[in-house]
């Protein structure tokens, strides 16, 4: 890809950046379509869609949530968004299967925790015969769990009693109703279930729940790498891939939005709660203190991402589409 596309995108980016602000404003798209899950990786996108100061990107910024990885893949394949927050392995898989996309940044470096009725847990094998709820079978939560379990000498699907769930909210309900003792969750679902178990009428019947295991720290303790994993980021899709000016402006705006979210967690919580209609503002605000969020551009994140994807490739090639993505996958 690719020299011609690269030269075209580079020229577009230089032209856009060289244009005066008034001209760039005239050239802005009417609608900028963003998409992501109801998880921490999407908070900056929701912030951008809500706040008027990001109006230089487009006349209107829309956010389309995806509920599960299957819906994510459909949104990407149908071109229903310009920029999408998605797990890094899904981005690699879609690229390797020929979808026109380019990774802009990795922004989620650690969101996964084991929530349990036990206050502490040293190893996954300590779960014994107790059920562990896992949302999104075969996708990022289980991928990290499987790799960590193997490093601890456990074959996850054979030796752990896994209960696959359609969504994190299913796990939240099962935990609160005492029908599940442990669940692997990403923020903000972790903070939400902990808050709900300790407040209001729910606290009268819900069990005492704990943030028992930080999977990122456990990853480091098992010798698999640093306590941060390139779990998810932002990709440009379709026509946005070749719009270098838009991608450059989006990258700056996204990094700014992420910084503003981290600096104003209560405001971020209010936006996410209002937009989602299902997440608690206070829990979202609290989740930011437990989310390893940093917008690292794709080129800089590439070494860490390739190390992570390489591990998945060796374990199960289909998790990333059979090979490491080539250079065209990474934005400059």
UniProtKB/TrEMBL annotation:
Gene3D superfamilies: Periplasmic binding protein-like II. Residues 1-24 form the signal peptide. Keywords: Signal. It comes from the Bacteria. This is NitT/TauT family transport system substrate-binding protein. It comes from Tahibacter aquaticus.
